[in-house]
Amino acid sequence: MGQVVVISTGGTIASRWQGSGFAADARGGDVLATAAVPEGIRVRVVDLMSVNSARLTTRDQLALLRTAHEVLTDPDVDGIVVTHGTDTLEESAFLLDLHHDDPRPIVFTGAQLPLEAADGDGPRNLHDALLAAGSAALRDHGVLIAFDGQVHAARGTVKVRTLAADAFADPSGSPVADVKDGRILVHGRPERPAPLPLPAPADDTALPRVDIVMHHCDADPLLFDAAVRAGAQGIVLVATGAGNATPEIVTAVGAAVSRGVLVALTTRVPSGPVAEIYTHGGAVDLAAAGAVLTGTLRAGQARIAVLSAALTTAGTEARTHALRRLVGAPATA
Questions:
Q1: 2-186 is classed in which CATH architecture?
Q2: Pfam families, alphabetically (predicted)?
């Protein structure tokens, strides 16, 4: 019989009515009690925290990362399920994927409807996640997200619907597997860079600040420069189109990079890669100024890539090299 450990962190799947709205307050055992456990799987629960995921901090996410690694030191564990709020699930899952150096699956799941909803989606999602975490067919697939009958790779998968049950997808890719009739139907294995080591323990003052700034019509460098002045070690520029902004923002990016700030370039468009096509403030100029193009990673996951590069390497050149490797950008001469 396989053993799967459920790490409970809160979210809608653990939420109850608080008088004016829903908030996470249920323990992992209460969440597990709502779901059918697949045959042949025994479950152990770790209650790590119970919060709405919009409130998560880097410290919380690092605690989750280290807890998962500690759980996997037990050779009797076949996989891990993380129950998590959907708001920032894509960020936590990608963080763990970047540092996951073990063939056993870690599967994130959650819900769009609260714990006690009569027609809630949490029980099915949790059942499917347990099935995926205990599946030998999903070994060496990294960190996964099980939601609404599909299993997605952490990389590139984002929340695409605010309320509907089919909340997660990779807009530039396709699911790794489907769950049908109690079986995992695997379609392929995601490509992943070599995993990073665990970040060294640090107090709050040592955690790097990484900000996100969006470009739009009439945008100037004010907010970008404010992030630099606030001490950001990294900034994600969410550009338009295939990764375009203005000459003024290019100048600001160049100045930030010269000060050792990691700048990652993504787009506000839902799918497709950023690409060096346009000049006059476009991705051609932004890349020349030192911004690292993030492929199909969108803002939240691009920020996690910058954060992990900053947490695990020292020095501007090493951090830039690490970021390029994490996002799949070509190395520079």
A1: 3-Layer(aba) Sandwich (3.40)
A2: Asparaginase, Asparaginase_C
